[in-house]
């Protein structure tokens, strides 16, 4: 098929690259000349393992093309996917301005029959507005149907998640559109979930909010375990062995971040309000997530409460999760910003394998290091914000020798407290003894 993606962020570019790799002709429409120029050279604008190779391969084959021109990319397409951002407004509502802007441009350039699919995460009822807007702006002879196909990819594993998904959700009121979308997805395994547009819109928000709930639940239990002086990881290991529950996402730490969970939790709360539901449980999910950030920041400042001398703090990890350079809603930024406010005389040295270039737009008054050992040299404490595998494999005896005082504040519980004690560290995790 010939298909077009509006947007070349995580969702748009990854999905476009995978469908091109399956033999389709794929267009990607962007808004910035510089970015389109880079993409046409095979320069991917964010870090995602394996993506550069797929993009370059399909550029060489002529199956993947990038443009600024809707008039070039929309008319030949059988399917047009809307993959633009839907960030949170200040009131928590999803900002749909990019969705409607893209819809307007699509509508003006429709010629034959086209399936217009919203892949962006949008509140219930958005596709109805998309349909009305297209009907109003399209040429008389152009025919179309709308559909909702939410994505479930995770940054860091986006290639696998797109190629081998658990499920493919297709929400549409048109049998013709459904048939075309089933045909497109034929080479991809995964359970087919066929339902109405509104049900499809709702699935993504509910999925992400439930994942966020598991993280906040784990943090709430960690708060209690610290008070009781027991190890939350041992408790949750026991809980996770129950096949009804599992351990996935049941991990305490410094809270969830990224482009999806924070905004989707807020948007579902807002949707509830619009329909007269209080959404109290989900509001507490959000509150506990903020509490996890606050408590960890307090743990850092309490560590040096009695000592007024200037301290050097080493930080390993800035991205909100490993295998990405994404800093959106990253707990590291929130905590480091608060820490600089509370302790302006602290010297902060940071290292992250991928996110440091982007971090320089947010964190100005810190020292960026070339490797973990440079970061920990002469530090009075080491803080871990991201569970990169290379941090699990550090020579911890070398780390201890390089540090002024052997204190580790582990925001992701990647180390064994007993092992840390034997090496000679004072080790503070989240919910650990």
Summarize the structure.
The protein is an alpha/beta fold. The chain has helices spanning 10-21, 33-40, 51-60, 70-73, 97-109, 126-137, 158-163, 175-184, 197-228, 232-240, 261-274, 280-303, 331-342, 356-359, 372-376, 389-392, 396-402, 417-423; strands spanning 2-6, 25-29, 64-67, 79-82, 113-118, 143-148, 167-171, 191-195, 312-316, 347-351, 367-368, 381-384, 407-410, 426-428. The chain has two domains: 2-195, NAD(P)-binding Rossmann-like Domain (Rossmann fold, 3-Layer(aba) Sandwich), CATH 3.40.50.720; 210-428, Rossmann fold (3-Layer(aba) Sandwich), CATH 3.40.50.720.
Describe this structure in words.
The chain is an alpha/beta fold and 433 residues long. It has two domains: 194 residues, 3-Layer(aba) Sandwich (Rossmann fold); 219 residues, NAD(P)-binding Rossmann-like Domain (Rossmann fold), CATH 3.40.50.720. Helices cover 45% and strands 15% of the residues. It has 18 helices and 14 strands. It has a six-stranded parallel beta sheet with strand order 3-2-1-4-5-6, with helices on both faces. Strands 11-10-9-12-13-14 form a six-stranded parallel beta sheet. A two-stranded parallel sheet has the order 7-8. The protein is globular, with a radius of gyration of 24 Å. The termini are far apart.
């Amino acid at each position: 098929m010939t298909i077009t993606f509006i947007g070349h962020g995580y969702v748009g570019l990854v999905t476009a690259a995978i469908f091109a790799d399956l033999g389709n002709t794929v267009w990607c429409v962007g808004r910035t000349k510089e970015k389109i120029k880079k993409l046409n050279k095979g320069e991917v604008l964010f870090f995602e393992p394996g993506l550069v190779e797929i993009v370059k391969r399909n550029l060489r084959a002529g199956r993947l093309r990038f443009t600024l021109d809707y008039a070039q990319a929309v008319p030949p397409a059988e399917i047009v996917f809307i993959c633009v951002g839907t960030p949170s407004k200040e009131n928590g509502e999803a900002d749909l301005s990019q969705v409607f802007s893209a819809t307007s441009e699509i509508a003006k350039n429709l010629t034959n029959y086209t399936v217009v699919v919203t892949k962006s995460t949008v509140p219930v009822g958005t596709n109805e507005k998309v349909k009305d807007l297209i009907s109003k702006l399209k040429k008389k002879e152009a025919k179309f149907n709308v559909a909702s196909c939410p994505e479930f990819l995770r940054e860091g594993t986006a290639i696998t998640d797109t190629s081998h998904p658990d499920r493919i959700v297709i929400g549409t009121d048109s049998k013709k559109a459904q048939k075309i979308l089933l045909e497109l997805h034929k080479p991809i395994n995964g359970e087919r979930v066929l339902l109405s547009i509104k049900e499809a819109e709702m699935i993504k928000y509910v999925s992400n909010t439930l994942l966020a709930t598991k993280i906040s639940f784990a943090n709430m239990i960690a708060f209690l375990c610290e008070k009781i002086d027991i190890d939350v990881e041992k408790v949750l290991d026991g809980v996770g062995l129950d096949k009804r529950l599992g351990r996935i996402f049941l991990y305490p730490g410094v809270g969830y971040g990224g482009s999806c969970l924070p905004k989707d939790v807020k948007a579902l709360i807002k949707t509830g309000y619009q329909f007269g539901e209080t959404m109290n449980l989900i509001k507490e999910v959000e509150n506990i997530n903020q509490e996890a950030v606050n408590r960890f920041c307090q743990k850092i400042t309490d560590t040096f409460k009695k000592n007024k001398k200037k301290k050097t703090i080493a930080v390993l990890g800035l991205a909100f999760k490993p295998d990405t350079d994404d800093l959106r809603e990253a707990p590291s930024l929130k905590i480091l910003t608060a820490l600089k406010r509370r302790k302006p005389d602290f010297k902060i040295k940071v290292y992250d394998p991928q996110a440091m270039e982007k971090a320089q737009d947010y964190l100005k008054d810190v020292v960026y290091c070339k490797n973990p050992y440079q970061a920990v040299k002469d530090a009075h404490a080491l803080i871990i914000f991201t569970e990169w595998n290379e941090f699990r494999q550090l020579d911890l005896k070398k780390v201890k020798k390089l540090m002024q005082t052997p204190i580790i504040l582990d925001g992701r519980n990647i180390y064994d407290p007993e092992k840390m004690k034997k090496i000679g560290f004072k080790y503070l995790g989240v919910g650990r003894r």
